[in-house]
Amino acid sequence: MIERGEVANSWRRERWDSFRLLTPNWQSRLPGLHYEGPDPDGYMTTAEITEFVERFAKLSGAPVRTGTDVTSVRRAGDGYRVTTSRGEIACRTLVIASGACNLPTVPRFAGAVPASVEQLTPFGYRGPGLLPEGGVLVVGASATGVQLAAELRRSGRPVVLSVGEHVRLPRTYRGRDVLWWMDASGVWDQRYDEVDDLTRARRLPSPQLVGTPERATLDLNALTSMGVELVGRWADVRDGRALFSGGLRNVFSLADLKMERLLGTFDEWAGRRGLGDEVAPPERFAPTGVPDSARWQLDLNSGEIRTIVWATGFRPDYGWLEVPVVDDKGRLRHDGGVVDSPGLYALGLPVLRRRRSTFINGIEDDAREVIAHLAHHLAVRR
Amino acid sequence: MTTVANGVNVQALLDAREVLKSAPEAAQFVWRASSKWQNGVHSTTTVKEFFGLGQEQTHRNEAVFDADHPEVFAAEDNGITPIEYLLVGLAACLTAGVASVAQNRGIQLRSVEATLEGTHDIRGILGADSDVRNGFNDIKVTFNIDADASKQDIEALVAQSQKRSAVFDALTNPTNVTVEVA
Question: Which Gene3D superfamilies match (chain A) (predicted)?
Answer without folding.
Answer: FAD/NAD(P)-binding domain
